[in-house]
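Re: [ENG-882] Designed sequences occasionally contain unexpected residues at chain ends

Forwarding the minimal case from QA. Structure tokens:
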């Protein structure tokens, strides 16, 4: 039994030992298998990782040295003298590129010291920096992070990866891998200096300043080339966070990081101990604040000239360069264009000064308002209130109410009074736009007619407080009044019909023709002398006679007049629909939409330029950021009227300011030959003067803005004439130092002695014998249009001394007199007394014969019996004897 037990025990031990060996063997096998699996998984993971990394790299953007250059530059406007006058800056474009050679070494080193101390050692990726950042992150309990991006990587991030999003950790890792890979590649094709130059011109340094040059100007008011060590450290301190370390808004935060920049520069051997201490002690932030006050007090509000310049360049980018509207806008504000304007700084300064002088304007100016209000209640509902609603409210109790006030306080009281009725509560959010606008308003445009260049422009009086506000010089369309007589009636008549200063029309009752029948009468503006009888076009222009202009455009016909207006550059004419400008009233400026001061001045400049019209130019050329000319605004001239007819019109317009009866003697430029034309619209809503010298053409407009009222200018307050004096004041200053000269008379002009009552050759002893002085005059004509026939409006007749009518054989008392034949009236229009009536007789001799001594027959005078006017002329000699060469 005992044996059996021992035997069993050994067997059990043997079995147990065998099982143990088998277990160990299986464990080894398992471990080997597990190890193989781990290795396999590792290899697979490595292969997969390599594949992933390879895929990430393959998806990285392609780069060249050009692709890392900074994008987005402000555009700059220069005046005619090359001075910078404006910067067109959009968010993210305030950048001025500067070469590395113009950036002081201590500025370069300030950024390297704080951002990438091994910049000159690594190949684009700073492995040592990455390890340092990783150790710091782990030892801080995963709380503290340090940047490990090199300057090369930051350049790529700003200029290549700026469009990429980083949504989630995987995208961040992908972007970082690509960034590191491209950094290495970039350093193979660009030198360190090239990379540093691009970086220093790229970085965001706060206050919408991109790059060190823009930041230097913004914070210190000087070029980066002038920065000292202290100032360089301020800029380098901003890079980590342009908001947090903004030296204007957060000077203490910037001060702390600036100290770190200086410390790094000292430790890395870029500055000495003395330089470090001097820079650290510098009160640089006081200078920054001082410069900021100056910068903000002169915040960029573009002038009226620049506003119009922007519009013209943007339009030309679309029309001439093929840009879309969006592309044109982006190019203007973010592509670094250089725009060379036509603005003459001296002329513009004179214009600005005179418009700012209150002595040049009526003492009793009014105040208008530009107002709107929106109210958002606690439920988010918005209610809008307009200026029209304010006006309607006050008109309930005062039908003649207009939003014009004697003071800003009175205007504000009116606004407050209306707002008080709106039931606004404390829980409402109110958004209000309100500004006070002095009235009447004015605008002026000055051009060099020989080039079509706009040398100066002002679009309103009073302070301009915002960009792209109403520009009354180019945006406002107002009826041009009598200034249109020259371009709509007389210029076409001179050119198409051979009319000239000596051509006559009868200034008597005349009605518009409406739908083939007689309509309302045309009225002359001079109520003291309603009708002047036979009148030359020279006198019609001098005295701005309405009937003469309407008769002239009737002769021209409306389609021809419109054609000339289009050739003179007017773009706002109504040519289709129910209300077109094809009508006689166009001669008086009675058009549907009105015209801008800019286009009206340009049309007159075309006349001043020997009849050659040039579209008004605000700039000469536009150059892109690479120096390529993308818009060449070379003047293109269109000969609208001949130089001879242009000279004749100018000669007539000289009399407007210098002749007897001229409407604008106060518009004379002191010491300079002046010509021009005034204009006034119905009820004195608008007054104009467009005038010229041999050097410049200028147009001035005055009126009340169309802002809910139609207020007429008051002659009692001097509002209807001050503009001419202001025009002369501006132009006199502009012409100081310029030689007084006249327009050169072109060849092809002749001078002829004519009768002012017929426009034909004067007859001695007849035309000068109707009892008035000055009827026979010397007048200019384009050669070939001068009269060859003698006067047929003067006649010598027998008059009944008792009745003043043509004598019959029964009239006992007869006298011989020279009379002017008076024309028959327009059908449907009654005859009226003119200045010729007392010296004239009806051309219908039968109706002019004496009826008191009846029964007789009309007795012709010896003059008539001898052959009339022709016989008299023959006795005097050849009719052409009255023609002489002009003398000046």
């Amino acid at each position: 039994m005992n044996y059996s037990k021992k035997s069993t025990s050994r067997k059990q031990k043997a079995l147990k030992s065998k099982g143990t060996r088998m277990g160990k063997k299986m464990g080894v096998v398992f471990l080997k298998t597990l190890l193989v699996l781990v290795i396999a998984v590792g290899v697979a993971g490595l292969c997969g990782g390599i594949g992933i990394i390879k895929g990430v790299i393959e998806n990285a953007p392609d780069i060249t040295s050009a692709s890392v250059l900074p994008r987005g530059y402000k555009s700059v406007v220069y005046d005619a003298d090359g001075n910078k006058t404006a910067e067109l800056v959009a968010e993210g474009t305030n950048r001025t590129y500067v070469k590395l050679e113009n950036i002081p070494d201590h500025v370069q080193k300030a950024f390297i010291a704080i951002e990438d101390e091994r910049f000159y050692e690594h190949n684009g990726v700073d492995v040592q920096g990455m390890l340092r950042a990783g150790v710091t992150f782990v030892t801080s309990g995963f709380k503290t992070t340090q940047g490990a991006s090199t300057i090369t990587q930051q350049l790529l991030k700003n200029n290549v990866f700026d469009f990429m999003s980083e949504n989630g950790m995987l995208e961040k890792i992908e972007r970082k891998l690509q960034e590191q890979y491209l950094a290495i590649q970039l350093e193979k094709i660009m030198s360190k200096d090239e990379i540093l130059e691009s970086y220093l011109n790229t970085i965001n340094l706060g206050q919408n300043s991109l790059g060190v040059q823009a930041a230097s100007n913004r914070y210190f008011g000087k070029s980066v080339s002038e920065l000292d060590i202290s100032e360089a450290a301020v800029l380098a301190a901003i890079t980590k966070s342009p908001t947090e370390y903004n030296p204007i808004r957060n000077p203490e935060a910037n001060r702390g990081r600036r100290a770190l920049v200086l410390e790094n520069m000292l430790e890395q051997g870029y500055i000495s101990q003395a330089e470090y201490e001097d820079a650290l002690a510098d009160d640089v932030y006081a200078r920054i604040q001082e410069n900021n006050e100056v910068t903000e007090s002169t915040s960029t509000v573009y002038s009226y000239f620049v506003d119009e310049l922007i519009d013209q360049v943007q339009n030309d980018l679309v029309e001439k360069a093929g840009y879309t509207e969006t592309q044109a806008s982006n190019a203007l504000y973010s592509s670094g264009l250089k725009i060379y304007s036509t603005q003459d700084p001296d002329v513009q300064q004179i214009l600005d000064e005179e418009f700012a002088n209150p002595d040049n304007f009526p003492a009793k100016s009014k105040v208008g308002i530009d107002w709107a209000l929106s109210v958002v209640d606690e439920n988010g509902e918005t209610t809008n209130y307009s200026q029209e609603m304010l006006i309607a409210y006050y008109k309930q109790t005062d039908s003649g109410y207009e939003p014009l006030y004697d003071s800003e306080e009175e205007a504000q009281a009116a606004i407050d009074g209306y707002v008080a009725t709106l039931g606004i509560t404390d829980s409402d959010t109110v958004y209000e736009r309100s500004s006070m606008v002095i009235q009447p308003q004015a605008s002026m445009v000055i051009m060099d007619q020989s080039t079509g260049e706009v040398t100066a422009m002002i679009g309103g009086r009073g302070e301009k407080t915002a960009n792209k506000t109403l520009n009354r010089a180019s945006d406002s369309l107002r009826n041009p009044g009598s200034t249109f007589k020259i371009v709509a009636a007389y210029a076409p008549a001179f050119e198409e019909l051979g009319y000239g200063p000596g051509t006559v029309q009868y200034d008597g009752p005349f009605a518009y023709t409406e739908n083939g029948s007689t309509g309302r009468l045309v009225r002359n503006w001079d109520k003291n002398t309603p009708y002047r009888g036979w009148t030359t076009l020279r006198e019609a222009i001098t005295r701005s006679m309405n009937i003469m202009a309407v008769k002239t455009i009737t002769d021209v016909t409306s389609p021809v007049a419109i054609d000339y207006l289009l050739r003179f550059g007017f773009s706002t004419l109504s040519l289709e629909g129910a209300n077109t400008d094809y009508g006689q009233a166009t001669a008086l400026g009675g058009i549907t939409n009105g015209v801008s001061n800019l286009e009206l001045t340009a049309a007159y400049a075309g006349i001043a330029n020997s009849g050659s019209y040039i579209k008004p130019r605000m700039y000469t050329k536009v150059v892109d950021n690479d120096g390529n000319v993308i818009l060449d605004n070379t003047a293109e001239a269109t000969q609208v009227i001949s130089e001879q007819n242009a000279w004749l019109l100018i000669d007539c317009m000289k009399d407007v300011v210098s002749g007897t009866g001229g409407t604008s003697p106060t518009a004379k430029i002191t010491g300079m030959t002046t010509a021009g034309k005034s204009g006034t619209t119905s009820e004195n809503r608008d007054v104009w003067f467009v005038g010229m010298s041999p050097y410049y053409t200028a147009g001035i407009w005055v009126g009340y803005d169309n802002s809910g009222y139609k207020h007429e200018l008051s002659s009692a307050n001097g509002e209807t004439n001050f503009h001419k004096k202001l025009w002369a004041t501006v132009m006199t200053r502009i012409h100081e130092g310029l030689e007084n000269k006249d327009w050169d008379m072109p060849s092809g002009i002749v001078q002829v002695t004519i009768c002012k009552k017929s426009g034909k050759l004067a007859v001695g002893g007849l035309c000068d014998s109707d009892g008035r002085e000055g009827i026979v005059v010397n007048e200019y004509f384009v050669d070939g249009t001068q009269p060859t026939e003698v006067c047929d409006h003067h006649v010598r007749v027998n008059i009944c001394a008792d009745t003043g009518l043509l004598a019959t054989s029964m009239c006992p008392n007869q006298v011989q007199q020279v009379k002017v034949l008076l024309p028959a009236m327009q059908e449907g229009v009654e005859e009226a007394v003119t200045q010729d009536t007392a010296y004239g007789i009806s051309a219908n001799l039968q109706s002019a014969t004496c009826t008191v001594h009846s029964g007789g027959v009309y007795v012709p005078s010896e003059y008539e019996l001898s052959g009339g006017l022709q016989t008299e002329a023959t006795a005097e000699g050849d009719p052409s004897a009255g023609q002489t060469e002009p003398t000046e």
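QA comment: On inspection the terminal residues look reasonable. The two ends are 165 Å apart (CA to CA). Proposing we downgrade this to a documentation issue.
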